[in-house]
């Protein structure tokens, strides 16, 4: 029996939640061959990851499940992207440099943010983890970024985010970039204290945050 688009979208969402890595590619191909919209299919995968985020917050899922679910979502997105013509620079909503400051080697959260931003039509320059603050500025200058994102999972590297904003101020670059921060030990209160432009508790909220910060119209 032929599935409706709604049934396919639910199946895509479920595949992410239940870590169905062996089924996801065939499901995406089947969805595409049925003639349904590619971006809506990607949204179905993201919806699944939002459910996963809720399960993580409720402590029903933990880091290992989060990683596996993110892998399944990425597999699906990669397959969907084979159906999308290559983007030009002008087609992106903006360019974002993201990385994990020096002293922190955890990048699960950063990886999820990257997936969400790319799915939301942002160009993402991922400079990796354990990165000196100078590299963030160099990458932002090189790629003409509007936004710089710093992610940290360790409280010991939180001062680096404060120091980064101070460096921008010292170089008269603070007004040139929007700075967003995130990670398990980071809070809205901390973001306000250091003068960051934005913070999200969940990677699934980052696209909406940047749309607001950059005054982009939403559909």
CATH topology (fold) name of the largest domain: Rossmann fold
Structural class: alpha/beta
Spatial strand order of the main sheet: 2-1-3-4-5
Total tally of structural domains: 2
The stretches of 5 or more residues where confidence is low (pLDDT under 50) are: none
Radius of gyration from the alpha-carbon trace, in angstroms: 18 Å
Question: Ends: how far apart?
Answer: 33 Å
Number of strands: 5
CATH homologous superfamily placement of the largest domain: Cobalamin-binding domain
Family: Belongs to the methylamine corrinoid protein family.
Pfam family, one: B12-binding_2
GO molecular function: cobalamin binding; metal ion binding; methionine synthase activity
GO biological process, one term: tetrahydrofolate metabolic process
Helix and strand arrangement:
Blueprint: H1 5-17, H2 24-33, H3 38-57, H4 63-81, E1 95-99, H5 108-119, E2 123-126, H6 133-142, E3 147-151, H7 158-170, E4 178-182, H8 188-194, E5 198-199, H9 206-213
Parallel strand pairs: 1-2, 1-3, 3-4, 4-5
Can you give a write-up of this model?
Belongs to the methylamine corrinoid protein family. The chain is of the alpha/beta class and 219 residues long. The protein folds into 2 domains: 5-81, Methionine synthase domain (Methyltransferase, Methionine Synthase (B12-binding Domains), Chain A, domain 1, Orthogonal Bundle), CATH 1.10.1240; 89-213, Cobalamin-binding domain (Rossmann fold). The protein has helices spanning 5-17, 24-33, 38-57, 63-81, 108-119, 133-142, 158-170, 188-194, 206-213, and strands at 95-99, 123-126, 147-151, 178-182, 198-199. A 5-stranded parallel sheet has the order 2-1-3-4-5, sandwiched between helices. α4 runs parallel beside α5 (108-119). The longest helix is centred in the first third of the chain and has 20 residues, at 38-57. The mean pLDDT is 91.
